[in-house]
Amino acid sequence: MILQIVINGLLKGGLYALMAMGMSLIWGVMDIINIAHGSFIMLGAFTTYWLFTLLGIDPFLSLIASIGFLFVFGYIVQKYLINLIIRASAFITLVLTFGIEIFINNLAQVLWSADVRMVQIPYGAANFSIGSSVTIPIMRLIAFLLVIVISIILFFILNRTNLGRSIRATSQDLDAARLVGVDVAKTYSVTFGLGVGAAGAAGTLWSILFPITPMMGGILTLKSFVVVIIGGLGSMLGPLIGGLILGVTESLGTNWLGATYENLIGFTILVLVLIMRPKGIMGGAD
Amino acid sequence: MGNKRLRNYLICGLILLGVAVFPLLFNNFVIRFGTDILMFAIMASAWNIIGGYTGYASFGNVVFFGIGAYTTAVLMEKAGLNFAFAFIAAGMGSALFAIIIGLPVLRLHGHYFAIATLGVAEAMKALVQNLEITEGNSGIYLPMLDLSVKAQYCFFFYVMLGTLIVTLVATYFLLNAKFGYSLIAIREDEDSANSIGINTTAAKTIAFALSGLFTGLAGSVYAYQQAFIKPGSVFTVESTLKMIVMAIFGGIGRLFGPLLGAVSIEVVSEILSNYFLVAHTLFFGALVILSIVFMPKGIADMLTQKKFGLIYFLQNIRKNRI
Question: What's domain B28-320's architecture?
């Protein structure tokens, strides 16, 4: 029983980790808190939904389309909107992304109505058992494995490519990076695109596992905050650890207290971690 | 100098007189609209104390609004107290909560403070959704005010107006005292402020408590006016955003900035929702985006710089873009 709960938590935690990865990247490199993050996840989910419903494309295949579409979208948003205001105080950019969130969510609601939708794939309910007490849904397992694959790709991009080097250089010292010839504005746009692309991937996986609505993003942004704060900024490992911790704690907590306590658990952890270890469990000393 | 001051007092008096006779001239719908503007003006001005003057951008100020509303509801409905008592208790309760939560949270800076306050607000919302005394997610009813409809509208208008005046007058006097300079010193450089002997912890905690006090009072009046509240309506992140956007749009760190912002944003959103029934929130989002990009320092800055239109907008973008 308890093993099943922990496994459920870990599988959901993987998705949380992917959600937070993009946010952590954007936050860490540009010091932008992207409140619209959940809206981008929603757009990823709807990309998959429409490709599946209208064209019959398999949701796992549409992962690539969703990442691509959101990368371009994120690139454009950063280049033509956020870059215009990036040197104002950090909190101004925060409010700007809040405005973007309202805009995207409501546009989606006007276009697609507030209906709750599902991506119903024929093999969606498949699962297998380990021993007598543990059942693992295959969809969730595949989603979890994809999260690992995407994290490795992202890790590779950041650590082994020229693009990754410019991103890390810009993150460490903007002026020095510019001095050695990094196109900072472009690097910012690409980084934002990568973060938003990761959000799109999370949206696709979310739409395979859970119902979706145009307003689903708000709570997902907040959950991403919790994960980023638990894990701390500055490494790919942070969101992964944070996501798994949140997934398992939620799973155990709701089993013990009841499903309505899910958010209370998450936000209490958020506030406690911030008060006690502001740099996160994985981060250094304050 | 003395003359200028006298003139300013006169202008304030005239505006106040105009606002005071406002309910006598218009119908209930307009009075209610005016009450909403006053409410947001209180919240934006209260946010300005901590976010504008002290430089701690709180993203969870709605928590005080919710606590004020729920304190009023529980005290009136469950304990049978009258509104006057519940109103004061709501303000005190919110201020107390601000002190308790402020002591640990105000040690954080920048983004971390913003996220922490957001987390506090969301945690409190989730808690209220689960508590029995607040009747959880289904919401709680308050006793109705026993007056004619017109008199009810006027009552809430004047209580809200009174609260706004208290908020602004208190802000004005505190900010012109030593306390106000401590706050601005904290905003400009907290370490230096500390080193010249300002008790920064005390100053910013008091600022947070004041912000909580006035926001809580607004929440109290709102709850009584609505006669029914639920967690989703009094703890929404959108309210926090609205007060911040109003403060920015008017001008952060200026006494009348938030008031200016509240009036203009509310009027614009009202016009939008008249013309676009479905999509007015969409336009509100666009308005937030455009005003942040083109005038991050608000109307007040535009007025003092005496530059208008394209020149001013482009100057802002040139200054802030990368």
Answer: Orthogonal Bundle (1.10)
